[in-house]
Amino acid sequence: MPPVTWAVKHHHEQQQRECEAAGTAWRHSGHGFTTGQGRPIDPTNLTRALTTLLRKAHLRRFRFHDHRDSQQ
After folding, report:
1. How much is the pTM?
2. Region Disordered: start and end of each range (predicted)?
3. N or C: which end of the chain has fewer CB within 10 A?
4. Where are the domains of the chain?
5. What is the pLDDT of residue 71?
């Protein structure tokens, strides 16, 4: 199984567990990536989390949009 396929499958399984744990608080937003309650991820929070991870990994900062059409 290609790594991307595995990662998406793993993410979906994790999201199902979050849905079950959230119970009636879960909101089916139709998004593939959500908060632990099924709501869309706020772009500002996502950017903040990415920046933190990049800093901890000693990698330079980049924007998601810069890489959306990347073939790498």
Report:
1. 0.63
2. 23-44
3. C
4. 1-41, 42-72
5. 57
